[in-house]
Structures are given as structure tokens and as C-alpha cells.
Write a structure and sequence with these properties.
The protein is an alpha+beta fold and 304 residues long. The chain contains 9 helices and 11 strands. The strands form 3 sheets. Strands 1, 4, 7, 8, 9, 10 and 11 form a 7-stranded mixed sheet that branches. Strand 10 (245-252) and strand 11 form a beta hairpin. Helix 6 (127-139) packs across helix 7 and helix 6 (127-139) crosses helix 8 (279-295).
Amino acid sequence: PLARRRADERGIDLSKVQGTGRQGRINVFDVLKTNKPTEDANPVPSFQEASLLINSTTGFPLGYDDVPNEIIVTSAHRRATAEHMHRSRQTSAHMYTEVEVDMSNAARSRDLINSPRLAAGLPKISYLPLIAKAAIAILADFPEINSTFQNERSIQWGEVNLGVAVDTETGLVVPVIRNTGRMSLETIADSIREVADRARRRRLLPDDLRAGTFTISNPGSVGAVAGPAIINQPQVAILGVPVIVKRPWVVTTADGLEAIAIRPIMKLALTYDHRAVDGAHATRYVVRVKELIESWEARDYLSH
């Protein structure tokens, strides 16, 4: 389309242009080289135009031929991931909503839960299962977010099959934990740890990667302070869990006054498909998740 537009601007007959792109396609550079440009036309492509052009001999972007380089062949896993992410952006109307969560209460609850676990020689529970537990619990009141949108209909799933994005040496994978709505906090924590370990050891089975209905991404594990993510098709939402950062925070004291305190804060991000979910509804969901995380005590995590 860009080459056609430039040809129209210059009055160039494309049938007389020799294409040098892949399979003989005509690119903008071919158009700009054809005929003598008029006095008020600029034969040099703009920076944006040039960035789209490819040298037909080397396959490099135009202007990069003298830059030292190393060719890395794209792995099958990376190609599949790229295709899936690109298809998701083309399919869903991506929108984002974020809330800031005071994790003080969750931190205290986590310490109380982990104390007997460590004494018994069990691994510590991270923040991720606590957040997942809250996100799953609130989905019961927001079935549109645990669904698949197909234009003429929406399929609201009867269970929450949680996808957990896992960073591995070969790339991102999203194993699925089935029917998490029926699981305790500790079962969710053990399940996340188990599938993540198998993913990193490349021991996942095809059945581990199917039928997800809602996904959590954890960029906080590598230090990200914000977590908007691409929706994992055919779902309509993904929750991004960034790092928890200590920040000055306005709190209400016991005598009802406002004061500044240092609190652990997390910016919880929901990416949702605006075709299936309205912005206000998506925001209500993530606000409810925030409220639950901030109010739950250790006994509540363990008793649900």
C-alpha cells in the first residue's frame, strides 16, 4: 500500500516498474527509483519509509548493510510464539486497566502462612499464588472475563483453568492448571511450582497446554514495575503481576488522620478484549481483586 500511494503521488504506472522485493513485489524504493521525480517531489524516502524497505540482495533493512551483525536463526518455538502474539493483536481489541495494591496485609499473611511450612521443611509460598487465589475468587462474579468471544456469541466457561506464563530457556510457555476455583491456596501454589518446573525441564505434555480460560503473567519475577501483557487466545483477559516496590503511601491513622507511610505497592494490570468486556466492567473486576488482596487475612487464604 505504501508503494502504491507513492506511485499515485508521482503519477507512475506500476505496470512499468520492475519489483525487487520478495517474489518480485514492488516496494517503495522501486517506485522512488522509477522515472525522474518532479521538482516538488522528494526522491529520498523518509526515515519511516526507509525502515520498511529491505535490500533484496542481503535481506537487511535498507541502510543497515554496513552494520556488524550476527545471524541468529529463529527457533520453531519463537516463530510459533511470534505468530500467536501477532494473531492475538490482530484478533482482540486490546485495552488495559491498572490498580495500585497495598501489599502490606498480603505480606503479613504470607509470613504467617510460610512460618509453619518452613518449620515442616516445605517450600515457601510466593506472592503469585496469593494474587492468583484472589483473581480466581473474583472471577465467579465476572463470568464475562472468564470466557471466549466469537463475535456472534460468547462462551462463558464453567471453571477457571488458569494459564501461568513461564519464562524458560527456550522461550515463553503457558501451561494450564485445570479447575483452580476448587483449589486451596497451598494447592494452587504447589500446582504453579510443579508446572513451572516441568516447563523449564521441557517435560510438559500437550494436555498441559490446552483449555486455558484465564492467564496470569508474572513479569515481576524479572523486575518489571508494570505488567500489561498480550491476551492469550482464545481468552479475553490476562492479569499482569509486576514487582512489589516500597513507596511513600497515604494511610489513615488510628485517630482518623492522614499520614505518609512506606508501603509495599504493586501495580496490578489487566489486559482485556474490549470487544467482549466493557472498560468499566474490567476495572470493577481488578478493583475487586485489589480489595480482596488488601483485606484477606492468613486464615482467609487457608480457609477458602
